Amino acid sequence: METKLKRMKWQSSIKNKIVGYYLVIFILSIFIFEVFLMYSVKYYYYSTVEGMLRSQAKYSATIYNSLLSDVNLEASVLEDRDQFYRNIISQVQILDNSGVVLLDNVGTDMVGSILETEDVLLAREGLEGKSIEVPSYYSHQTLAYSVPLRNRVEQVGIIRLITSLENVDRMVMNRIYIFLIFGLVLTMTMIAVSFIVANSIVKPINDLTEVAAKLADGKFNIKADESSKDEIGKLAMTMNFITDNINKKEQLKNDFISSISHELRTPLTSIKGWAATLQGEVDEGDVLVKEGLAIIEKESDRLKGMVEELLDFSKFTSGIIELKRDTVNITELAVQTHKQLMPRAIKSGIDMIINYETNRIMANVDKNRIKQVLINILDNSLKFTERDGVIITNLSETAGDFCIEVIDTGIGIDSEEIQLITGKFYKGSGSNSHTGLGLSITEEIVKLHGGQMVIESKIGEGTKITVTIPRGEVDEGAF
Predict the structure, then answer these.
(1) SS3 sequence, the chain?
(2) 240-259 pLDDT tens trace
(3) The whole model's pTM is what?
(4) pLDDT in tens, 408-455
(5) Would you give the end-to-end CA distance of the chain in angstroms?
(6) pLDDT tens readout for residues 204-229
(7) pLDDT at 10 > cutoff 50
(8) Average pLDDT taken over every residue of the chain
């Protein structure tokens, strides 16, 4: 279950969602804020320039009304033109009521032409007006502000002030660049903060997921971290409460199995002993009694084997098993085990072969437990390999490990069952196992030695079981 959970890849994790939501909201807010700032800065500078032109234009209009209103406008332009642009640094144009340019203080070719810009049209109606344009004699935008010129009776013309916006636009762009850099820094900071916040939320969830995966694999000694004071901490407490209950029930089950197994050993020994004794006392002609006693003895041995498996299972699940490590010649141990099982293979019509690179593969292991691994794997192969089949055992070593590979031509295992056959009490759809604990115990022994067991199989083609175990610190002088 844990392996299956690790293989799962979320297309969109909670962490990514949190970071994504934060960024969308923040970037949208930054965008709106940046647009508002840009508009505000531009409006501020343009309004400042407009206010300056308005003040200057009104001042000039007031001067005309006070000093020159009795004089014809065209005459004033010819005789007292400096009155219109004295102390004014902007471009100044004087227009009549029809919009004809009478004066341009910068000497452009606009004199004599008729202007119909927005500001001029408004001024012809007696209103103040402004317009932003790019005139023919400028390569940049300009701001023009027009104010009506009046004598004591009526409007006689228009005064129009024009200034370039090049420097203003440059200042606005400088401010915009600063705002953009500031927004970028804020965005990068927000990304970092989002990841920190997301990690603070997701990490406890990931930890609980790992704990749940290990619990699903039967590792009930794992505890979830309860230090968090929020809902995740409460969930961890609930998981630990459930785990404690499972452990208690598991312990009760193991104690029961251990107790029953011990209780069964004594009567089984007596039954087998008396069956063997009585076989010698029965007359040769009493075939039925002899066969019955032989069956009793054989079934007693079978039950004894089941009891031994149950006892081993109880020890492994209780965690009280201890390895008695010693320097062992794995090649010699495997050959002896092969010889031990050879009569059974011959009786079943199965060819057993063992191959090894060297007769001295040394390792620091528990000899009896490694022999149990070999017997369990070979026994499994013998059960599922039909007459005229082959079982091959290959032994090899590397600098740090030794490898036992058992290949048979048996009936094979369905792909859906491969992940399940090492489970406790799992027998499979076509199993001849008595308890379903053999491969489960084998895997536990391999794990206790720090190794791993891999099962590969195809229906109708056979099975290959590969066990790899670290050699450990070997005493070469032991043999």
Answers:
(1) CHHHHHHCCCCCCHHHHHHHHHHHHHHHHHHHHHHHHHHHHHHHHHHHHHHHHHHHHHHHHHHHHHHHCCCCHHHHHHHCCHHHHCCCCCEEEEEECCCEEEEECCCCCCCCCECCCHHHHHHHCCCCEEEEECCCCCCCCEEEEEEEEECCCCEEEEEEEEEECHHHHHHHHHHHHHHHHHHHHHHHHHHHHHHHHHHHHHHHHHHHHHHHHHHHCCCCCCCCCCCCCCHHHHHHHHHHHHHHHHHHHHHHHHHHHHHHHHHHHHHHHHHHHHHHHHHHHCCCCCHHHHHHHHHHHHHHHHHHHHHHHHHHHHHHHHCCCCCCEEEEEHHHHHHHHHHHHHHHHHHHCCEEEEEECCCCCEEEEEHHHHHHHHHHHHHHHHHHCCCCCEEEEEEEECCCEEEEEEEECCCCCCCCCCCCCCCCCCCCCCCCCCCCCHHHHHHHHHHHCCCEEEEEEECCCEEEEEEEEECCCCCHHHC
(2) 888 888 778 777 776 776 66
(3) 0.48
(4) 998 887 776 666 565 554 455 554 544 456 677 888 889 889 999 998
(5) 43
(6) 777 787 877 777 766 767 777 777 77
(7) no
(8) 80
